[in-house]
Design goal:
The protein is mainly alpha-helical and about 575 residues long. The chain has 19 helices and four strands. A two-stranded antiparallel ribbon has the order 1-2. Strand 3 and strand 4 form a beta hairpin. Helix 3 runs antiparallel to helix 18, helix 6 packs across helix 9 and helix 11 packs parallel to helix 18. The radius of gyration is 24 Å and the shape is globular.
Length: about 575
């Protein structure tokens, strides 16, 4: 029994898991249909829609720098998470109205659309940087459970990332542009659930090992720093600024790339001019800047998923299934799920038997009962229809965006097992990141091979895009957690936040670049020339990424030994 308590995790971890899972459901579900809504409902041309998508996702990764700063100095993590969640839920509600009015009030629709995106950008800035930082604080210093805790939390991110595109895609991507609003509404509902979980259970369960609540405002800040009316006005002004910045970058002048570059240069000057840093510390900081540069190439190609690859799934992928699923098999699976729910009910009763846990226990009872009633109602409906089979004709294109998260959930344990088993043959972090880029390049080579003989309007097998997403997910598992860990290990304590900002800035630049590159996606009768390279077909387009990422692979492999040497801490 004592051993069981030792390996168990604090209940606060699962509160943070649920909060983050529902928020990622919201973000990835909305992202899955965003480019389709712009091109099919708002009738934006693909190039403009892709550029706007890049501006939106770029700002999504930029605003956490501001949100983290405000949380650290004024509001605390918990309050910032709730404020950010409310803003994102409001953003989804505004997008729902935009999707409801686009065919009758087009001018109002555009205003609502940009306003909704502005709320999402501002809200994400407060939410994203603050919840992850709480996970490690649940455990005492040196606790070996911390690594496992981050793995569990990462599974929450990817569970939401898988469910969001599936549910929002099925609800909104039906072939009728008027239905996109239901995807936004589903995202809004998930965000409301996330906020409720955080607001109701944070104080009781998200505590440090001594039982003190985490995420509170700094001790020197009084409640006067969060006055509801003044805070609402400031948030409104900040959201208006984000709406203006988004519109400015997409419609007027492409300033975001220059702003990001200037921010990185400023951070570099601040750090390298600091005389208190040793030469070895500056060497390790140099490694962070160099790998962050290569990360831009990875995410710029990886994040084609939300734009150009969605166009490809919609237009050039044969998504027809024509499956006839026997109703008896649905009854069988439902029976198995009901048994799982029964076991969860028993486990909840056993582990949350304390009077102090009554609210959480009753909440879980309600969720389990709700899912059970939904399953039972679905099966009763199918019985009433008296049909032997359920038809599944075609996969909505937005559902393919769930594949990345599904592959990560499936293969993350394998990669976590693999690296330690290699022993002295385990590659250093820069080489692992180069392998991640290699997987990405191979993914584009795979799909380029699949479309090489496909003319305009010809659809190819679904195996090409599903195989590509698998290779891209392998690349993500080699690069993303490795790179993040590298930044944490190499950063001097004095500049740990600033260097984490460099990582976020690299992601922001990559997402902006992803939108710019997606605008090159070919359309019938349109030829784009980039540096003398003509893009006329999907084959030409995908081959461009094979070459760009392939060059980055070669460069990073060549630099790997040098970078590894600069990372060594000499005593």
């Amino acid at each position: 029994m004592p051993a069981s308590r030792q390996i168990s995790h604090p209940k606060g971890l699962y509160i943070l898991f649920a909060t983050e899972m529902w928020e990622r459901f919201n973000y990835y579900g909305m992202r899955a249909v965003l480019i389709l809504f712009m091109t099919k409902a708002l009738l934006f041309n693909k190039a403009f829609a892709a550029n706007l998508y890049g501006s939106y996702t770029g700002l999504i990764y930029l605003t956490p720098l501001l949100g983290g700063y405000i949380a650290d100095r004024y509001w605390g993590n918990s309050r910032s998470i709730i404020v950010g969640g409310i803003l994102m839920a409001l953003g989804e509600l505004i997008l729902f109205f935009s999707g409801s009015l686009y065919h009758t009030y087009p001018q109002a629709t555009l205003l609502l659309f940009f306003s909704g995106l502005g709320c999402m950008i501002t809200g994400n800035g407060f939410f994203k940087p603050n919840i992850s930082s709480l996970v490690g604080q649940l455990y005492p210093e040196g606790d070996k459970r911390k690594d496992t805790a981050y793995t569990i939390f990462y599974m929450g991110i990817n569970t939401g990332g898988a469910l969001g595109p599936i549910i929002c895609g099925l609800a909104g991507d039906t072939g009728d542009p008027a239905d996109f609003r239901w995807a936004f509404l589903a995202g809004g509902v998930s965000m409301v659930i996330s906020v409720i979980v955080q607001a109701v259970f944070h104080q009781r369960y998200v505590t440090d090992p001594a039982g003190r609540e985490l995420g509170l405002p700094p001790e020197n800040k009084t409640t006067s720093t969060f006055q509801p009316f003044q805070t609402t006005v400031k948030l409104l002004l900040l959201t208006l600024v984000m709406i203006g910045l988004l519109y400015l970058d997409a419609e007027v002048v492409n300033y975001l790339s220059y702003l990001l570059l200037a921010a990185v240069i400023l951070i570099a000057v601040i750090i390298f001019k600091d005389t208190s840093l040793t030469s070895e510390e500056k060497q390790r900081v140099t490694v962070i800047f160099i790998v962050s540069f290569f990360v831009i190439f990875f995410w710029a190609a990886f994040e084609q998923a939300g734009a150009s690859l969605t166009f490809f799934a919609d237009e050039q992928t044969n998504r027809k299934l024509n499956w006839a699923i026997p109703v008896w098999s649905i009854h069988l699976v439902s029976g198995m799920l009901l048994y799982v729910l029964y076991r969860l009910f028993r486990k909840t009763k056993q582990q949350l038997s304390s009077t102090d846990d009554r609210r959480l226990r009753n909440t879980l009872y309600g969720l389990i009962s709700g899912v059970g009633i939904l399953l039972a109602g679905t099966n009763l409906y199918l019985l009433q229809q008296q049909q032997p089979n359920l038809s599944l004709d075609e996969i909505p294109p937005s559902l393919f965006l769930s594949l990345g998260s599904i592959y990560v959930v499936l293969f993350a344990p394998f990669f976590a097992w693999l690296w330690p088993r290699l022993g002295r043959y385990e590659p250093p972090a820069p080489a692992k990141m180069a392998i991640g880029l290699l997987f990405l390049s191979l993914g584009y080579l795979w799909i380029a091979f699949g479309v090489r003989a496909a003319g305009p309007g010809i659809k190819v097998s679904v195996i090409w895009i599903t195989g590509m997403y698998a290779l891209h997910s392998f690349g993500e598992l080699c690069l993303s957690p490795i790179g993040l860990s590298l930044v944490n290990k190499l950063s001097p304590v004095k500049f740990s936040s600033l260097l984490m900002a460099v990582w976020f800035l690299a992601a922001a630049a990559a997402n902006k670049l992803a939108g710019v590159l997606s605008s090159l996606y070919p359309e019938p009768g349109r030829t784009i020339v980039l540096g003398g390279y003509a893009i006329q077909s999907a084959y030409d387009f995908f081959l461009l990424f094979v070459v760009i990422v392939g060059v980055a692979v070669l460069l990073l492999f060549m630099l790997s030994r040098w970078l590894t040497g600069m990372m060594v801490v000499r005593k």
